[in-house]
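Milestone 3.1: sequence recovery, worked example.
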């Protein structure tokens, strides 16, 4: 009996390893690069392996990771799909959460729903403009970025303000065992989004739209509906990331998400998702997020100038684009 149980456990473990390998196999090079960065980090800085630093990376990467998950949905649809307004949506989310909660600290759940609703509304507006008015996604979301940033600055008068409830801080400061809550939230978001993309009709149709939009239209897929949906998903992801950020900082900041949308796009592209659409997925995106996070953390530990860090991030994006073009 014990032998049978051991064989069953071994079989289950083998299936788990096999499933994990199939998931990461298309991006195995990225994960090897990530492991190489981990080794380099341990050699370059003695503080890198410090548990506090590891947990800090986990907390810092969560907002970017969640925003990148939403961005993956948009970019997968192809035809220039991108959401440049995600960073401003995150900023506005922090301001709304901190501003409302400052006066009604006991209404945590309604505030969360309100913030997610704001993000979904911004995403819906992007989707309507792109699908109904046939505007270019880059220009549309760039304009929305400016509009939303203006709303956040007007709402706060350009200054950090508000204060979240102490109980709300568990989102960023809490742990489950030794694992920080943000890491758990990020894992849940990626698992859920991965299942949606790979195991549902919705996800398969997104790949079909990105692969060949005209063929998808002729097969009866409602292109506009799905494109609207991915912008709403991106808005929801950005506002959820904003909730996690404001939980960390405890105040709303109209500039908190400035430039974060570019890091999210970089993570998606580094992860192998093609701007042409229809190719890529979340297993690559999470690798891209981790690589960007570790590189940023290493540069901070080595006291490298923020200006140099910006140049390095730009070079990483350019390198990812060149590699993607060579593969295509």
């Amino acid at each position: 009996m014990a032998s049978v149980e051991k064989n069953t456990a071994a079989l289950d473990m083998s299936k788990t390893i096999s499933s994990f390998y199939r998931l990461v196999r298309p991006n195995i090079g990225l994960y090897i690069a990530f492991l190489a960065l981990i080794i380099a980090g341990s050699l370059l800085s003695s503080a890198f392996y410090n548990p506090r630093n590891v947990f800090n990376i986990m907390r810092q990467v969560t907002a970017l990771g969640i925003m990148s998950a939403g961005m993956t949905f948009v970019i997968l649809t192809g035809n220039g799909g991108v959401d440049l307004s995600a960073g401003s949506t995150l900023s506005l989310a922090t301001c709304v959460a901190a501003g409302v909660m400052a006066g009604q600290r006991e209404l945590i759940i309604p505030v969360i729903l309100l913030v997610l609703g704001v993000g979904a509304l911004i995403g819906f507006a992007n989707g309507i403009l792109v699908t109904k008015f046939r505007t270019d996604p880059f220009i549309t979301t760039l304009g929305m970025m400016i509009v939303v940033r203006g709303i956040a600055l007007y709402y706060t008068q350009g200054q950090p303000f508000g204060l979240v409830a102490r109980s709300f801080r568990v989102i960023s400061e809490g742990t489950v065992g030794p694992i920080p809550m943000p890491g758990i939230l990020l894992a849940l978001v990626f698992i859920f989004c991965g299942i949606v993309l790979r195991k549902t009709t919705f996800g398969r149709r997104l790949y079909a739209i990105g692969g060949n939009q005209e063929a998808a239209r002729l097969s009866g897929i409602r292109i506009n509906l799905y494109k609207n949906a991915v912008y709403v998903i991106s808005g929801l992801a950005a506002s959820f990331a904003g909730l996690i950020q404001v939980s960390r900082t405890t105040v709303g900041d109209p500039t908190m998400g400035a430039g974060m949308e570019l890091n999210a796009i970089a993570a998606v592209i580094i992860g192998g998702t093609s701007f042409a659409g229809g190719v890529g997925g979340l297993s690559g995106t999470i690798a891209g997020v981790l690589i960007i996070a570790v590189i940023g953390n290493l540069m901070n530990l080595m006291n490298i100038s923020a200006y140099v860090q910006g140049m390095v991030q730009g070079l990483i994006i350019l390198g990812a684009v060149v590699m993607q073009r060579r593969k295509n």
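The radius of gyration is 20 Å. The longest helix spans residues 223-249.
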